[in-house]
């Protein structure tokens, strides 16, 4: 057997991809302390904290309107399963955090969906989980968005239309009711 055949099987790692957006990023550079485009390992027993206090938070947001600790992410293994997940907890007393449509108050926590949008203040973060096997650590991979995440992901709002009727906006050129004309008339 060759050394390749004898080598241990490489373990895949769960990776949390996070894409950050703020409308004032170009002017205020609030993401300047984040390490973009490079995967970073985090021990499984550590809580990944996001906020402005660099002595407590692993991921620093340089903005006085952000709480010392805005939110935290805890990696865990689901009960009776080999699947892993993340739990998100709002650590801010002043700012509510929304995960997709769920609003979290201070110390509220929920399981992070495998793909979701996290919002607080003017911040938008697209979080996507890539499954892995390792139980010792996970990775984060941070990205910077140039356009608003919500704007990019949302469909234009449509007006509700009853099943047996038509919306007047569907046929804007037909404001008058139809008139029947005999084919012999001009």
What does this protein structure show overall?
With 186 residues, the protein is mainly beta. The protein has a single domain, classed as Tumour Suppressor Smad4 (Sandwich). It is built from three helices and twelve strands. The chain has a seven-stranded mixed beta sheet, with no helix packed on it. It has a five-stranded mixed beta sheet with strand order 4-3-5-6-9, with no helix packed on it. About 12% of the residues have low confidence. This is TRAF-interacting protein with FHA domain-containing protein A. It is found in: Cytoplasm. Its main location: cytoplasm.
Short structural summary:
Belongs to the TIFA family. With 186 residues, the protein is mainly β. It has helices at 3-6, 25-28, 149-153, and strands at 15-21, 40-43, 47-51, 59-60, 71-77, 84-90, 97-99, 102-104, 109-111, 115-120, 123-130, 137-144.
Mean pLDDT: 84
Strand residue content: 25-35%
List low-confidence stretches.
154-163, 165-177
The neighbouring-strand order within the major sheet is 2-12-1-11-10-7-8
Shape: globular
Share of helix among residues? under 10%
Radius of gyration: 24 Å
Distance between the termini: 91 Å
How many beta-strand runs? 12
Structural class: mainly beta
CATH architecture: Sandwich
